[in-house]
Amino acid sequence: MVAALLVALPFLGAFLIPLVGMGSKRIAYSIPAIVLLADLGIALSLLPQALRAPIVVSISGWAPPLSINLYVGPLGLGLAILISLLGFLVAVYGMGYIHAEPKEKYHMLVLTLITGAIGMVLTGDIFNLFVFFEILSLSSYALTGYNRDRTGTEAAVKYLIQGSIGSAFILIGIALLYGALGTLNMADLAARITAGDPMTMFLALSFLLVGFGIEAAISPLNAWLPDAHSSAPSSVSAILSGIAIETGAYAVARIVYTVFPGQGIMFVLAIIGIVTLLMGEMAAFHQHDDVKRMLAYSSIGQMGLIVFAFGMASQAGAFAALFQLVSHTLAKGLLFLAVGYMIYRVGSRRISAFAGLGRRMPMTGTMVAIAVLSLIGVPPFTGFMSKLAVVRAGLMQHSAVYTGMVVLVLVATMIEVGYLLRFLQVLFFAVPETDEVAELPLSAALPIAILAALIIAIGIYPQMITGLLHQAAAGLVERAAYIKSVLGAL
């Protein structure tokens, strides 16, 4: 039951913040960092056991499929570690960055978002996947409009409308599955799925992919993302880009790999990934004014690359997708946090306002450069190894079509190189618009430095995570092993 604390602690922390705040605001604002550091410690302590065999936790005491269960395998636990790590760093960053009131609600919403994200990657029940998705989504809507300005409110409303449509699609898909198969346990659904009416199963799959695809920002379901990520506070943008859309991609992968025998849909998923990648990168390339909007479109492109890798329907593709997911989380988290303080210092999101700012804020500028070089795949940073894994997985398909898609991935990477190096040129070589600008405070410098260190360390020594990622990919691809570990575990 220790694994259940990974979900329970952030949720409990969210309730504690207003209570503790009545006595000490300073202690209350530190609760997210404390809780998420504890979550990270618990997840790391469970990792050796999960690598030996998945941990199946029955919440109600009944054996699956009657009970609601958590499935703590290499994939879910690895993502929980990543979510807790980025959540902890953003919580530390937010203690000095967030100034708008009410601060208590900001910290509560961050913890509830993390609760939803961790619950999504650990649950073994498809209805609870929806419940945790709703917790994450509602928190995301509120955080997007946290500044309560016109652009933030408009972005939050757009996000809410499209997210609500996605939630309705998911609920309809779940209802179709339950009506046809009489179970909500994902392992039990996977074992019974071939007994269902093919048309009903196809409709259920379609509804679920559209619903979770909205959160994963796959084309053409991503209209909400540029406004939401650019209008939210930068610490929230880091969470949305580094956690929220990744959990949407996880849900898509879990549905097509585990619940459904998804070979028939995988090629379509790969095509959707390529389209999303090219559209995101081209939109980012044509963004010359708003730096956060450029980074938001970049996130769409990165999600397309991840979805393309998942669509290969192979263990190598799943490994590459997960590696790219980790790489994107670290790099985009670092970028949004570092750029966020630059915006705070100059008071503008205009790219032209960043002229020479890398020289005015050399430490922050260096961190931005590390993140950018990782995103475009320059060695020795993490992004080089993850993109190489995607290219290798595509070529291993031994298909002219997938080889053509790999060529399109390389074309998209060249587009990405163009706009990100253009941004670095403005940052370091353009004539400054501002006088001397103060560097980051310690509360922001520490999480940013940790993210940069991880990008370099994993890039130089990828074996830090590749063993875990290989096991996670195997656990995702091997449906029979998942079914057996859940239904035969208790």
Chart the SSEs and their pairings:
Elements: H1 5-21, H2 25-52, E1 55-58, E2 69-72, H3 74-97, H4 103-122, H5 126-144, H6 150-181, H7 186-192, H8 198-216, H9 225-231, H10 234-259, H11 263-285, H12 291-310, H13 315-346, H14 357-360, H15 362-375, H16 382-395, H17 400-429, H18 442-460, H19 463-477, H20 479-487
Antiparallel strand pairs: 1-2
Helix pairs in contact: 1-2, 1-4, 2-3, 2-4, 3-4, 3-10, 3-13, 3-18, 3-19, 4-5, 4-10, 5-6, 5-10, 6-8, 6-9, 7-20, 8-10, 9-10, 9-12, 10-12, 10-13, 11-12, 11-17, 12-13, 12-17, 13-15, 13-16, 13-18, 13-19, 15-17, 15-18, 16-17, 16-18
Q: How would you explain this protein's 3D organization?
A:
The chain is mainly α and 490 residues long. The chain has one domain. The protein is built from 20 helices and two strands. It has helices at residues 5-21, 25-52, 74-97, 103-122, 126-144, 150-181, 186-192, 198-216, 225-231, 234-259, 263-285, 291-310, 315-346, 357-360, 362-375, 382-395, 400-429, 442-460, 463-477, 479-487; strands at residues 55-58, 69-72. It has a two-stranded antiparallel sheet. Helix 9 packs antiparallel against helix 10 (234-259), helix 11 (263-285) runs parallel beside helix 17 and helix 12 (291-310) packs antiparallel against helix 13. The longest helix has 32 residues, at 150-181. The mean pLDDT is 91.
Helix count, DSSP H or I runs of 4 or more residues: 20
Helicity level: over 70%
Content-based structural category: mainly alpha
Indicate the mean pLDDT.
91
The end-to-end distance, rounded to whole angstroms, is 14 Å
For this entry, what is the oligomeric state of its chains? single chain
> In which order are the strands of the major sheet placed?
1-2
Total domains, how many? 1
Q: Can you summarize the main beta sheet?
A: 2 strands, antiparallel
User: How many strands appear in the DSSP assignment?
Assistant: 2
Strand coverage percent: under 5%
Low-confidence stretches: none
Give, in order, the helices and strands. HHEEHHHHHHHHHHHHHHHHHH
Shape: globular
Radius of gyration: 21 Å
